[in-house]
Amino acid sequence: MSATKRVQQWLTMSRGWWLFDAKWQDPYQSAKVLKKYLLGMHKPIYTTSRNGDFGDHVVVINSADIALKADDWYYRVYFHHTGYPGGASWTKAWEVHRKNPTMIISRAVYGVLGPNLTRKPTMERLHVFKDDNVPKMIAENITDQIRPLRPIPKRLDHYSQEEQESFPKVFDYPKDYVLPEHSPPPPLELPLEQVTETRKGFKKKTVIFR
């Protein structure tokens, strides 16, 4: 085998390090993409055999800025059991994310890997960080980046004054235009309650609208 083929074979069998920015990304949609890189499904040598483990390392940053659909922060719950009688607990997504910002995306990837014997060693190649502060020992190994599933929107306060002024407008007020002054609405009059006592000692409540 020539030296070129030997290096090519080494590069094919080696494990790569991929970077994924989870900012404004759905963790459950992103987990399906991260699964392919953790199992090596993007490589031509991928096999479903247990003896062929060609998955790569994936480094996830900004997990504290993930985005869930609609009311998933409130209605999605996570189950945990201590192993003792009465030790079951259900925690809402926003509570889990407040305690540990890396937990939701880790659980999402753990779920898509499926119940098999290779799930735990595969999860060891997933490195999740709540922000973009990655240890130098890991950052030096990163060789490529996974494209985000959705574009990251830009906040209005991040636009410069020149960009705001050059943004196309539907219409613009003339310089001598004066906005009319609107008088405040009249105060809201609430109904009055009057309590009277009848002959037999019962109390009678009367509502008077002004």
Q: What do these coordinates show?
A:
The chain has 8 helices and 8 strands. By secondary structure, the protein is an alpha/beta fold. It has a domain at 13-150: Ribosomal Protein L13p, Chain: A, CATH 3.90.1180. A 4-stranded parallel beta sheet has the order 5-2-1-6, covered by helices on one side. A hairpin with a 6-residue loop joins strand 3 and strand 4 (88-92). Helix 2 (27-39) packs across helix 5 (103-112). The mean pLDDT is 85.
List the helices and strands and how they pair.
Layout: H1 3-13, E1 17-21, H2 27-39, E2 57-61, H3 72-75, E3 77-81, E4 88-92, H4 93-99, H5 103-112, H6 119-123, E5 126-128, H7 136-139, E6 144-145, H8 161-166, E7 192-197, E8 203-208
Parallel strand pairs: 1-2, 1-6, 2-5
Antiparallel strand pairs: 3-4, 7-8
Helix pairs in contact: 2-5
